[in-house]
Write a structure and sequence with these properties.
There is one protein chain. The strands form 10 sheets. Strands 26, 27, 28, 29, 30, 31, 32 and 33 form an 8-stranded antiparallel sheet that branches. The chain has 1 helix and 41 strands. The N and C termini lie far apart (47 Å). It is mainly β. The radius of gyration is 23 Å and the shape is globular.
Length: 568
């Protein structure tokens, strides 16, 4: 090892130690939760349509089909609370605080409204046994004047609706529900279904949510369908809680069509205990079943023009969890730990046909390597190609050949991770031999950064089926050169349909990938798409006749080079 390389590596290691000591909590999407198996015949895990609710200093996370909900003091470490007094098998829970009480309702033909003064206890009671609206995807909003509103809708034909509720009549409706958001996929490209927004019809508008900011009402909704990679959230704005509403041209404000895991739709925008905004969303896998889904958490903000944004750039890389009020627009929560595992050489103990070792390093949750068995001792070894500083890992299990369902007794995954500089001498990094947590996207921030070239994960126990990984993701830094900054970007919008455009730029051989940022003003380039292995991007979800501004940042294992802003 050269003296120059040794000095660079030591400086990098010290830098990473400083970051870790200043920020003790990090997390990585998809969230590290016990995603429950479904009741269906197909064996798959599901959680979707999330709400994070802050009540008396604690966070509560509710999601569809989860058998209960989660609680946390910090939004990093979540404790699961099994629940028998709520309809936790119904879709799309809605939660709101009214005075000192939490109210809950979910989708249904004859829904009931529940309440609880202490969600730490499984002691929910029925408040209104005959809620008058049969609906899907509800949302409850309490305005700061004490008035209560209800929003709902989940359809490829019917609109998003809204109505006021009467707090003096057990939250019965006041008047007739009003149409608030219609389908407009011919103007809003992202509302058209299909992986490339090309099915030629309206998608599903669903998952409404309401926030109030500086006197304006932000009605959010999801489209075009939970199974698509472009599943995102848009927003309309109004001066009153029931409108009339005006479409916000930066929609979808929450959007993540590429990366390790896609989708950022049917979400909930909320403030943490310090006043920072967040957006928790549904992320899609949809391989074994359309509803095979996970949850993601992203920082959010309002800009000076009043536009709502969700920051999904590097959104499935490790992020810092702040412990104070911060300016999210100026202070990125991205740790700066880069992906070290992309397309690296992988050796394994065995492999099933169609589940080759390379699929554990392809940055795609929908493909995976599988060993031929689930026996203890099956292993995967990754060569990072050079010695790097490793800060964190994410072990994404794929449940190959699982036959488990919601009623099954689940054994947790157990495994160990070792590191080496020469593939001969190994040191133990992670020991999960006694793990009791049923987690499938296990994120581990190491107690201190480690220099390593080889990473090996060894199976000790699987819940069922074969030992399989949809990616072993390794994060940290390599002490090398940054890629060149992108200074020329070409944007060509289709003349026949300017909801579609091709963005291209010069490739850099030192770049691992690129992040394409765009927005409707030069100051609001918050929408982003991550690109690996290419130097152009096809955008199919733009808004008709709306001008956009673009920037392309290049990145590699050493960091990020900011590009030059362009317009179209």
């Amino acid at each position: 090892m050269s003296l120059k390389y040794l000095i660079a590596s030591c400086c990098l290691l010290l830098s990473c130690q400083t970051v870790w000591s200043q920020q003790s909590f990090t997390f990585c999407n998809p969230l590290d939760l016990n995603y429950r198996f479904a009741y269906d015949d197909a064996s798959y895990r599901e959680a979707a349509d999330p709400v994070i609710h802050l009540f008396k200093g604690k966070y509560y996370l509710y999601a569809s089909k989860s058998g209960g909900y989660w609680t946390s003091d910090n939004m990093v470490q979540w404790k699961y609370l099994r629940c028998t007094t709520l309809p936790v098998e119904d879709y799309a829970p809605a939660v709101e605080t009214i005075r000192d009480t939490v109210f809950f309702i979910a989708s249904g033909g004859n829904p009931k409204l529940y309440y609880n003064t202490d969600p730490q206890k499984d002691n929910w009671k029925i408040y209104n046994a005959h809620f008058p609206i049969s609906m899907t995807d509800p949302a409850i909003f309490r305005d700061d004047d004490g008035r209560i509103y209800f929003y709902y809708g989940c359809s490829a034909t019917n609109p998003i609706m809204g109505v006021e509720l009467d707090p003096d009549r057990r939250l019965d409706t006041i008047g007739t529900p009003q149409v608030l958001i219609d389908h407009r996929f011919r103007e809003h490209g992202w509302e058209e279904p299909g992986e490339s927004n090309n099915n030629g019809k309206a998608g599903w508008n669903e998952g409404s949510w309401m926030n109030k900011y500086q006197g304006k009402y932000y009605l959010q909704y999801a489209a075009p369908g939970t199974e698509f990679n472009g599943y995102g959230d848009g927003v309309y704005i109004a001066d009153r809680p029931l409108g009339p509403f005006t479409y916000m041209d930066n929609s979808p404000f929450s959007y993540k069509p590429r990366g390790f895991i896609n989708g950022a739709g049917h979400g909930c925008t909320f403030q943490d205990k310090y006043g920072n905004y967040w957006h928790v969303t549904t992320m899609t896998i949809s391989v074994r079943h359309m509803f095979e889904r996970r949850l993601g958490l992203f920082p959010a903000c309002f800009d000076k023009q009043g536009q709502l944004h969700c920051l999904t750039a590097f959104g499935d890389y490790p992020m810092k969890m702040p412990d104070r009020k911060i300016d999210i627009k100026a202070s990125s929560l991205f740790t700066g730990w880069m992906l070290l595992s992309y397309h690296k050489n992988v050796a394994v103990s065995s492999a099933l046909p169609g589940h080759d070792p390379a699929l554990a390093a392809d940055e795609e949750v929908r493909t995976w390597w599988s060993a031929a068995s689930g026996r203890s001792g099956e292993w995967l070894q990754m060569d990072l190609a050079k010695e790097c500083t490793v800060n964190a890992l994410q072990v994404n299990f794929a449940d190959q050949d699982s036959r488990l369902q919601a009623t099954s007794t689940i054994k947790p995954y157990r495994y160990k991770i070792e590191a080496s500089s020469d593939s001969l001498h190994w040191k133990l990094l992670v020991n999960k031999a006694r793990n009791d947590a049923d987690v499938t996207h296990h994120y581990i921030m190491l107690p201190k950064p480690t220099l390593a070239r080889y990473i090996r994960v060894t199976c000790l126990q699987v819940p069922d089926g074969c030992f399989s990984l949809s990616d072993l993701r390794v994060f940290g830094k390599h002490a090398g050169h940054l890629p060149n900054a992108v200074t020329q970007v070409s944007v060509s919008r289709d003349k026949a349909d300017n909801r579609r455009a091709t963005v291209s730029w010069n490739a850099d051989e030192n770049a691992t990938g690129y992040v394409v940022y765009y927005g409707t003003t030069p100051e609001s380039l918050y929408t982003s798409v991550m690109v690996y292995g290419d130097h152009q991007l096809r955008l199919t979800g733009l808004n008709k006749d709306i001008p956009y501004y673009f920037r392309v940042d290049a990145f590699n294992e050493s960091g990020v080079s900011k590009g030059k802003e362009m317009n179209n």
